[in-house]
Structure formats: C-alpha cells, structure tokens
Write a sequence for this structure.
C-alpha cells in the first residue's frame, strides 16, 4: 500500500470516528414528549396538587423504554402502596412489582418543605 493511499485511509477513519461521536443537537431531556410534565400533563398536575404531606413526592423513570411516574412516601411510619402510571395517567401496575425494571429513575416533583432527602 503506498503512502498516499494509507493517508487517505487514516483520514477516512478519523472522519468516520468524528461523525459517529457527534451527538444530535435535538437531544433534549423530554419526559412524555414535553419539557415540563408537571405543568403540561393535566392529570399529573392534578395528582401533584392533591399531595398534601411533606413526605410525599413523585418520581419518574423509564419502564421498558417508556416514561412512567410513581408516588413515593418517605414517612417511616406509613405503609403505602404505589402504582405506576404511563404518560396518559393510566395505571400500568404496582410499583413494587415493576421497579426492578426501571431505568433513569429520578425525582420529578418534591414539595418545597419536603422532609425527604
């Protein structure tokens, strides 16, 4: 292989590596295809507004590639059951049974005076 052909091969490999490493500028942190799910999903806004205890909060995660929401209560004296909801607010199951398959788990909404940390 002559030197000129080798140089073109190296340039091609470098170009390919650079193009593959670039991320799409349209990558954003959307949940259920909205910027602010608490404000833009009416059912979720109603759910958040119904929470009155400083121990309660809402988390979001990915479940089988789909965005989901679930309720958490950090009060150690309260036994509670949490159900997981999809982007339409439909219950898809018991959180305890689904949680092992959650990814990208994060707090979505926490009250200002939350006792949870």
């Amino acid at each position: 292989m002559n030197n000129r052909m080798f140089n073109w091969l190296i340039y091609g490999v470098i170009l390919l590596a650079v193009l593959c490493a670039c991320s799409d500028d349209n990558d954003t942190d959307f949940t259920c295809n909205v910027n602010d799910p608490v404000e833009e999903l009416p059912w979720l806004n109603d759910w958040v507004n119904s929470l009155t205890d400083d121990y309660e909060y809402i988390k979001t995660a990915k479940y089988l590639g789909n965005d989901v929401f679930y309720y958490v209560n950090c009060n150690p004296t309260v036994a509670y059951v949490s159900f997981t909801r999809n982007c339409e607010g439909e219950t898809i199951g018991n959180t305890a049974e689904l949680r092992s398959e959650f990814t990208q788990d994060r707090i979505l909404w926490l009250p200002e005076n939350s006792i949870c940390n």
